[in-house]
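By convention, the token line describes the chain's fold. To illustrate:
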Amino acid sequence: MTKQIRPSVVLMQNEEMLLLKSKYLSGEFYLLPGGSMEDFETVEETAIRETKEETNYNIKITKLLYVQEWIDKKRKKDVLYMVFLGKIIGGEETHLNDPCLEKGNIKGIEWINVEKLGEITFYPKDIIPLLKKDCKQGFTRCPMFLKPSVTD
């Protein structure tokens, strides 16, 4: 079984959240900026690096929001999601929104109203209700350790 830690970042601008529009074999969906750790890298360093690579924004991590383990028995994957709240401190939106310059599986970045998260295909799904509620409350209930998500 493949085990992975995937730090990701919530970036807010008013009521909108920055999401990556991605396309994989399983279809198109939205994700938070983030990704896989490199050797000798902390989770915070990974979150900052991946966000820079995917959005071109310089960020700082302000808070841990959620921790959840996702186990997919069929695909033999075990991922520990660590979701952080970040703040943009520099940089300009990346060229990824130019369809001629798509980068791998990322097809673009979009600011999406938090209330519309349930209307799009967004992963991890389990945090949609939490994001909606916690965004309104300024993420004061966080950090939270969530029940593992296990699929057969």
User: Anything to note?
Assistant: The radius of gyration is 15 Å. The CA atoms of residues 66 and 144 lie 5 Å apart. Strands lie at 2-13, 16-24, 27-31, 57-72, 77-91, 106-113, 144-145, 149-151. The chain has two helices and eight strands.
